Every structure is written in structure tokens, then in C-alpha cells.
Amino acid sequence: MLSEALVLAFFVIGIQSMVPIVMAALGEAVAEKSGVLNVGIEGMMLIGAFATAYMGITRSSAGLGILAAVVAGCLFGALLAFLYVNRGTDQIVTGLMFNIFAVGLTGTLHSLYLAGQNGETLSGITIPGIGSIPWVGEILNKQNLMLYLAIAMAFGVWYLLNKTWYGLYARAAGERPLAAESGGLDVLRLRYPAVVVGCVLAALGGSALVLATSGGFVPGMTAGRGFIALGVVVLAKWRPQWIMIYALGFGLIQGLQFLAAQVAALQSVPRQLWVALPYLLTVVAVVFAPGSTYPAAVGIPYRRAGA
Amino acid sequence: MAVETVAAGDKTETPAWVRTLLSLAGTLVAMSALVWLLGANPLDVVEAIVVGALGNPFNIGQTVVITGILILTALSAAIPFSARLWNVGGEGQMTVGAVAAAVLGIVLPGTWSPWLLVPVVMIGSLVAGALYGAVPGWLKARFDASEIVTSLMLNFVAASLAAWVIFDVYPEGFVQRTEAIHVNAELPRPIEGSLVDVGILIALATAVIAWFVMKHTKLGFSIRAMGANNPASRLSGIRTDRVTVQTFLMAGAFAGLAGSLVVQGRDHSLLQDFSANLGFLGIGVALVARLHPLWVIASAVFFAILRVGSNSLQAGAGLSPVVGEIVIATFVILLMVTKVIKFRYPENVDAQ
């Protein structure tokens, strides 16, 4: 039967699973708003996860691990931005190939340096006041820094896209690039930082994944979360607050896997069904996402007028 | 998106073959640098790959088998891409085909003659792959749902289905595979002492059929017209919704057949992680072939050598086999950077 402890554990796992998806989806939303579909976030999460695990294991520092994910996000984000924006390579194919590249790179480095090792993890943070509320406190006390970082990121992305000159111009570059350029904006220079920032957020998502589990790296550990994030962005219509809500939904669905293994009544259901559920729901959700359309110029490399 | 060769008068005057060689050289340089940084000798890596793929009849056999599978997964990307439909679900369609082959190969009576059992199982895979492939096509046609997202997600659903069949339905002790299929459902291996099965012939024939369909049939014409200009093709009377579903059906059938080659030809059961990205690599194969069904064959040989050769990297150079993945991804990206692989887009989104 469902015990109180089990339900609490379900929510703890659900919120933990939400964090990487929120970060990746926010990163994707920034890139897409500027007109770049970055299918490479899955690979970027893997690289971020590896960077964090590497520093956690070799330097025994979670802080350096997070920093390493940011650095890796900048470096590979710049590489991807160079390809997507400057060279105008096809975004979907480049992203998919980048994912394969990331599988190869992290797999190779993992077998050379990190195989089978556990590293640093983050422990839960107790917020004074909230921590003593029954149930809510018990769930939130188990959550680490990354949850609060994710919430801060959501505010940050909302502010960036809606309240700054950069957000306004980047959205113009994502909807009507030619008009934006006619208005004196530099479309390429607007898209470039959006891709890099998006990659840093995705890399931090990978970092959150590592810091919430064993601190070690497992090849392919992102297991499609980057792709779920792509679906979440469409569902949430690129709005950060809705990204949080949908990602929580997907996190709780992942928590169901844990719950199903513990509850006798659910054990007759094949456990693979729970694994498949988030992906199936993403398909259903994308089909029925009412009125959700990509920014008009997403996926189309921009060439300067007359170039 | 239609991949096009470089038109006359293009700003970059260097011929495409020179840029292809440049990309290849760039890949070699980048890989050598990486391998050297990792503390291995680049020459050892090249030797390990070549010997691992072509060094003896056994390895050549493996390379031929992988070539056949890659031809089919590449076709499952190349055909929809020609219509600007993004089927990135070849991996899942192949997995469903492999599951169908394993289940049929186990449940159908093993006493049936191979002349009956082999084709029946194979057609089962093909149909299963086609139906699974049709889902994103239908969702695209009916609901305008992004086929990139749906076909990608269905890969993971297929992987769960395979895991269920492997671990719960037909488990084989503690190994991560199903029980073996009937001997009479296995593809024949005509060459004594070699792994090569007739799957490669089926793959080659499929490539020729795909070429014929694209070049000489109404469907092929409609696919190419959609790729060139979707609104114009619709205005000229092509039923683009129907063509979308048909294209995905065909793509799924090719990938499903690849699954049959894996189970009936290579493994004789369904293995956990049997694919190791063969479906995704098909996208790379298709792009390097510039989506041409016959060039897919040559491109698949190249990728198969890399893939099979990489397996001996651990012994030959102390590196993980996934290094091959880096080589392949780098090469395809460089081909795009040098504009050997180019895509056409609607000229001006602002005017839409």
C-alpha cells in the first residue's frame, strides 16, 4: 500500500527529476526564440554532466564541477553557434550529429578517466520557515542548490526575453529576421549569444543530473531528457513559468517508475511502460498542443540580405 | 530539405570533390589531435580501424553485414529528407522491426520450411516498421505535429518495447537477449566460414528499388516536388498529406527491414542495445550520399568500415570504440561547413 513515506519519496524524486529538464528546456527556449532550433541540447547535457563528474571526482568539488559545466557550455556553445549561425549549417542535422559527437566524446573520456567512480553530490538545503512545514518541508529539505538555481534561471530567462532590449531584438531575429535587419539589427550577432546561453543552461542541466545521483558519470545517462525538453518547450509555448510546470509534470512521471517498483498493485504492469510514458506523453502533448507554433524563422539559417 | 549539389556560379568555386577531400583531411587532422591528446598514437588508431574492419575474412564479413543494415537505415532517412520531412525515428522503426522479427521467429512454428519462414518473418518486420514509421507521418499530415519531435520520441518508446520483450516476454537466462529464433528463420549464410548473410543482397536490391521509386514513379516525383517547394506542389495538385504518410510508411518499411537483418541475419535473437545508434548513423550515411539512394551504398561501406573498425580500438590503441562516433559526426559536420552538403530553405520567411 501507499505509505506516507512512499508518497513523500515520490515527490522528492519527481522534483529532482524536474530540475535537469527545466534547465535544458529554458536553454532551448532562449535559442529558439532567437531563431535557432538547437537539437544538440541532449549532447550538451551529456558534456555538462561529464564535466561536473570529472571535477567532482578528480578535485572533489561540486562547485568546481558546476563551474566546469558552465565553461564546457560556453566552449561547445560557441562551437555550435559558429556552425548554426556563422556557417549556417542545417540546424537539425548539426544538432543530431553533435549529439552523436557528444556520445563519442564523453564515452571515450569516461572509459579513460572516470569508469566506475563516484564523485561529489550536493546535499539538501533547508530553508528557514519552509523547512518545518509538514510534508512540503520534508520534500524541499531533500532538494539541493540546483532546484533553486533552476527557479532563478526561469525568472532570469523570463526577464531576459520579455524585459530587456536584447530579448526584444532576439525575438525579432527569431520571427522576422529580414525585417529585423532592415531595422538595423544584426541578426547573426543576436543569435550567437542566445545559442551560447542556451548551451550553458543545458550543460547545467547535465550537471544537476550528476549532482543529484552518485556524482559519477554513466555513458548515455541523459537518456533522452534533452529531447523531452524539446517537447516541453513546445508545450509551454516558450514561456518559462509554464516550462517549470510541464517539467514538473514530466519529473513526477519519472518518479512514477520508482513508485511503481514499490507498490504491489502496480508491479504487474511492465516496468518498461513507465520508462516509455514520458516519451509517449510528449508525442500526445505535441499533437494536441493547441496553437503552439515555433517562432517563424526557427530552423532556417540566416544569410545577410544580399550575401 | 532537398540536398542540392553546388549550382554553377556559386560563390565557392572549388569543386565539390575537392571540398569532400578537404573535409576528410580536416576530420583526420582533428581526430589525430584528439587521439594524441588522449595519449594514443594516431597511426595506431588508423591501423586498428583498417585492420579491424578489413584485416581478415571474419572482420570483412562483419563490415559487409553492417553495410547492409546501414544502407537500409540510410534509405529510411534519405527518402523523407528528399521531401523535407524529418524522419529522425529510423532508430525506433528499426527497433520495432527487430522486435517483430524476434517475436515472429520465436512464435511461428519452427518446422516451417526456411523458404516460407524467412520471408514471412521478414515481411512481418517490414510491416511493423512501416506502421510504426507511419505514425509520425500521419500525425504530421493530420495534426501538423512536428515530425522531428514525434519521430524522435517514438525511438525511446520502441526501446522500452524491446526491453520488455527481452527481459519479460522471452528472456534467456541472465543474458541481455531473447531466446534464439528458429534456425529456419535465420537468413542463410552462403559463404562457408563467413558471417556474410543474404541480407546484404536484400539491402542492395532495396537501394535499387528506392532509386527506381524516386526516379521513375509518380510517388517519387511527388516526394521530390514536395522537397523542392511544398506550397507549389500542393497548388499543382499533389496531395501532400497523402504523400507525407506514404513517405513515412516507406521509410519505416526500410528501417523495419534493417531490424530484420539484425535479428534474422546477424544476431539470431534480439539483444539489448543491439543497435548502438545504427539508426541515427543512417542519417549521416544518407547525408554523405546527398540523399541519393545509390550513393547510399558507397557511403554505407565507408561508415561500416569506421563502425566495425572502431571495435578493435580498445585492443589496438587503448581507446573506447565510441571514438568512431566522433569521427563520423565530425566528418558530416565538416561536409556541411564546406557546403558539400547543402540544404535549400524557403527564400524569405518574412514574406510568408
Radius of gyration of chain B: 21 Å
Question: What's the CATH architecture of chain A?
Answer: Orthogonal Bundle
Q: What oligomerization state is this entry in?
A: heterodimer
Biggest sheet of chain B: strands side by side, in what order?
Answer: 1-2
Written as H for each helix and E for each strand, in order along the chain, the element string of chain A is HHHHHHHHHHHH
Estimate the helix proportion of chain A, in percent. Answer: over 70%
Q: Total domains of chain A, how many? A: 1
What would you say this structure looks like, in words?
The complex is a heterodimer of chains A (307) and B (352). Chain A is mostly helical. Chain A has one domain (4-114, 149-288): ABC transporter involved in vitamin B12 uptake, BtuC. Chain A has helices spanning 4-33, 41-58, 62-86, 91-114, 136-140, 145-163, 165-175, 177-182, 187-212, 225-235, 240-262, 271-288. In chain A, helix 2 (41-58) packs parallel to helix 4 and helix 7 (165-175) crosses helix 9 (187-212). Chain B is mostly helical and 352 residues long. Chain B has a single domain, classed as Orthogonal Bundle (ABC transporter involved in vitamin B12 uptake, BtuC). Helices cover 69% and strands 2% of the residues of chain B. Chain B contains 14 helices and 2 strands, in the order H-H-H-H-H-H-E-E-H-H-H-H-H-H-H-H. Chain B has a two-stranded antiparallel ribbon. In chain B, helix 3 (57-82) runs parallel beside helix 7, helix 4 crosses helix 10 and helix 4 crosses helix 11 (278-288). Chain B is globular, with a radius of gyration of 21 Å. Chain B starts with 15 loop residues before the first helix and ends in a 15-residue tail after the last helix. At the A-B interface, helix 4, helix 8, helix 10 and helix 12 of A face helix 6, helix 11 and helix 14 of B.
